[in-house]
Specification:
Layout lengths: L1 H23 L3 H27 L1
């Protein structure tokens, strides 16, 4: 369970950094690609947790 919490914390931390960098720099393509990847990681963690709870 602690491993799952670390992954969620890491994903949220990286999403926050991506959003902060998006507004700080105008290199939109690079940051949008990073944000899309991190969003996919976050949603995959959420849905895998939801599937385990549903059983």
């Amino acid at each position: 369970m602690l491993k799952d919490k670390k992954m969620y914390l890491l994903a949220i931390f990286l999403l926050g950094f991506g959003i902060a960098n998006l507004f700080r720099n105008l290199d939109f393509v690079h940051h949008v690609i990073n944000l899309v990847g991190l969003t996919l990681i976050t949603f995959s963690l959420i849905f895998s947790k939801w599937e385990r709870l549903k059983k």
